[in-house]
Amino acid sequence: MTKDHYQLVTYSQGVAADWEEKNDIASFIAPEVVVGGGIYFYKDYGLGNAFTPVEMRRALGGPVKMLHLSVNDLQDINQEYGLGTFIDDQERENNPQTYGVLEQRKIKDLVHTSMNNNLFLVLNGARTVTNNGTGGAGAITGVTGVWTGTANDPVNEINLCCKYISDQFGIVPNRIYFDSGAWIKYQNNPNVRGRFQGVLVQAVTPENTKQLWNIPLDPRVNQGALYEGGTGKNDCIIFYGQDGPSQFDISFMKTFVNSAGRFTRVKSWRDEDTSSDKYKLQWYQKIKVTGYATAVRLVIS
Fold first, then answer.
1. Which of 79, 157, 175, 276 is the most buried (most CB within 10 A)?
2. Has residue 65 been placed in a domain?
């Protein structure tokens, strides 16, 4: 017989929120959009025109313009995810006064493991975007991704990427993500550091480098999140992400979930064969690249 733990669901959601606050890469690239479960519709802005102006002025006696769902728009249904753990009878006997704390420790471990794996899924999805630097099929004129030495200027290349997205698709990007390897090359590039000559700056940081870009991009550097992708990951991704995204805006990526806080259920059951109580954390999600046209990816060398 299974037992539902509603307080542990709330606890798991709080742990996830704390984790995201410290390691906000996944929520920065692919923020959560609550769809409530079942089949839902969403817009996928692939390689077409990402922005289409709408005539919003109403004529006298006329109707207002409706935002219709096209037959070409997509529909999907979230998949169930789960992760389990156990509390052995020996653990219970050794913690007779703190069993509730022991449960929380087990759920916290499940949440952290799931969030690290979720970051893996988000970065894998983001890296499906074609390399727009030298050697890539979608190379942008003047952009190389080679940020070692003085031959190429990373600041100028980032500005060119922003202009490319704006010119091609009518969208001004507002976010930029650096793998730690890409950030080291950007941070130590002589052309970048040279712009701070005569200024009392100890190091190039995500905050003080904003002033160098023509567009005020919000930067994130993967410096602390457990997962990045293994050795040799040196990506820089420039993209558009909307604050509080919906199913229909042009954000680069989204994580569709059934309920706010991601996690929907914690249940337990007794397993006498292993002399333990089993616990399962459940949630529903689907990670999607919904604005392929609004992103540029550079593999930095």
1. 157
2. no
